[in-house]
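Hypothesis: this fold can be encoded by more than one sequence.
Test: take the structure tokens below, design a sequence, compare later.
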């Protein structure tokens, strides 16, 4: 995630870098997101367009470095904030809650989150 040429830092969110904001990505249904979130984090990078809020990464992380963006302070399967298609504003922006690497500096590089993510949205960079 520290490849500045391919993943330029384009913002900051809750104390971690956001890379590649502005690149159009597809959601889990193969439809383009109306927003362009980018990749959150540097040590543990989470591609918010690819994240489908399944929570497996949170369940396996031994140091609890993730929490839900739309349900702060909560983590794990079933603790995300479900978004209904009827809530047009939230649906158009997020589609699903997002896994946020709020304590990425505590990562012990076990790679559990990266290996369990069903959409390959997480990349751990032990540099």
């Amino acid at each position: 995630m520290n490849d500045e040429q391919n993943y330029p830092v384009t913002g900051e969110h809750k104390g971690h870098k956001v890379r590649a904001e502005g690149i159009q990505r597809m959601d889990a249904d193969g439809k383009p997101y109306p927003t362009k979130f980018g990749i959150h984090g540097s040590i543990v990078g989470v591609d918010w367009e690819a994240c489908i809020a399944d929570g497996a990464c949170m369940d396996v992380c031994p140091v609890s470095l993730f929490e839900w963006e739309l349900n702060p302070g909560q983590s794990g399967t079933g603790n995300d904030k479900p978004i209904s298609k009827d809530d047009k504003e939230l649906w158009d922006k997020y589609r699903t809650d997002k896994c946020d690497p709020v304590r990425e500096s505590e990562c012990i590089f076990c790679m559990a989150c990266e290996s369990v993510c069903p959409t390959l949205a997480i990349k751990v960079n032990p540099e």
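The chain has one domain: 9-124. Strands lie at 9-13, 16-19, 39-40, 44-47, 67-68, 99-100, 122-124.
Hypothesis status: open.
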